[in-house]
Design brief:
Elements lengths: L1 E5 L8 E5 L9 E10 L2 H8 L14 E8 L10 E4 L10 E5 L3 E3 L6 H5 L2 H14 L7 E4 L5 H12 L3 E6 L5 H6 L7 E3 L6 H12 L5 E6 L6 H7 E9 L13 H5 L4 E3 L10 H17 L6 E6 L3 H9 L6 E5 L1
Parallel strand pairs: 8-9, 8-11, 9-10, 11-12, 12-13, 14-15
Antiparallel strand pairs: 1-2, 3-4, 3-6, 3-15, 4-5, 5-7
Helix pairs in contact: 3-4, 3-9, 6-7
Amino acid sequence: MKAIQAARAGGPGVLLSAELPTPTPAEGQMLVKVEAAGVNFIDTYRRAGTYAMPFPHVPGCEGAGIVQATGAGVSLAAGQRVAWADSVTGSYAEYALVSEDATMALPDQVTSQMAAATALQGLTADFLVRDTFEVGPGHSVVLYAAAGGVGTLATQMILATGARLIAVVGSASKMTKVAALGVAPRDIVVLEALADLPKDLPARVKDLTGGRGVDVVYDGVGRDTFAASLAMCKPRGMVVLFGGSSGQVPPFDPQELNAHGSLFLTRPKLGDYTATPEELNLRADRLWRAVGAGSLAVAIGSVLPLDQAAKAHQDLESRRTTGKTLLKP
């Protein structure tokens, strides 16, 4: 089968086309023909060696496609359309192995591309907004990268609760997209317009909130924004650090949480919020209903051939993307 391998830890250039044997499903696994693979920051962290991985490896944990064969004990049959946010073998390939426990069956009204664009980031947005901090009416929220993959989905979920959202985007070109989702133009902050991010961003947020700060900050950027995130919260507010697109946050003194007003800090991951098949299916059913009904708009920014995986990583890491990037075997 055709696949992409990360030959060694490094930049996007280490992603190379390869011809590999088609894997065979073991007990509890299924072989799926990949119709679309999602490109995510976690793929870049693994490729770069930020997260420990064996090399060479096939990147990609997210995708959607059609079951081809199953191992012992699998209830799904060949021909079933499924999606996943965590695979046994990498999704940047014509075929992938997926555990049944990590698989989500797809309804007819959700296409494979819609599912691959939503599985990981939709489930992430769901647990962030519903569980890590349960956003509701009266809350004020800051969300970074509001025009990105998780951002566009989380923006819609936050606004649907009746909370006030201050949406942070990297460039002025992304303002229109966020405004189209329903964010008030005065509540859109452009990072490239700020001369001194650690000082100017908290000052802008404090001005928008009458000096109070916000209840929760969703920070998927990490190193470049973390200091500002702490400074934007109101006393006893929460910073939810769920990614590091600018790099990982270095060690810091927990007394900073005290100094900023007894803040809460968490670094959640999806696996802890989909720890059982029952919880995964609960979130997935809610997600597919919303996508299928059109109440949750899916933003697919680009669909690239599999052999352009390196370009997909370059675009993602340089923050040139808007919406979700997919690879199509």
